[in-house]
Amino acid sequence: MVSSCLLHSSRFTQFIRVSQISLPKMKAAQVIIALFVVALLGQAYAQSNAMPTFDCTDKSGYFADAYRLCHVFYYCYPDGRKLTMSCPEGTTFNQITTRCEVGSPCFYSA
């Protein structure tokens, strides 16, 4: 709640000065703990979303990426090189037909 305001206006500036705002009173230790918890949760979320990388060693052909719900797929060259591709919005890669299809199940992925 704002208890008082002063509007100042001049040729170049216009601002509102708030002299007192009611905020919940938190001790410095509580603020530090809250920030620490938020930082830990953010780090845990980032680590939980880390996905393994796909390795084309000793593989050849098309492979769906089940970790990315078959929206991403790879073509592995016989020499181990990898080409990464993604399906258009609303489709998933079907490893049997080697095409992106609507409603294709993600069962046959590598």
> C-alpha Rg, in Å?
27 Å
Helix share bin: 10-25%
The biggest beta sheet is recorded as: 3 strands, antiparallel
Order of helices and strands: EEHEEEEE
Topology:
Layout (H helix, E strand, L loop, with lengths): L4 E5 L4 E5 L9 H21 L12 E4 L7 E5 L5 E5 L5 E3 L4 E3 L9
Comma- or semicolon-separated keywords:
disordered N terminus; two-stranded antiparallel ribbon; 110 residues; single chain; 1 helix; Chitin-bd_dom_sf; alpha+beta; three-stranded antiparallel sheet
Give a concise summary.
By secondary structure, the chain is an alpha+beta fold.
Could you please describe the fold and organization of this structure?
With 110 residues, the chain is an alpha+beta fold. The chain has a domain at 61-101. It is 19% helix and 27% strand. It contains one helix and seven strands; from the N terminus they run E-E-H-E-E-E-E-E. The chain has a three-stranded antiparallel β-sheet, with no helix packed on it. The N and C termini lie far apart (59 Å). The model is unreliable at 1-23 (pLDDT under 50). One of its GO terms (cellular component) is extracellular region. Pfam families: CBM_14 (PF01607).
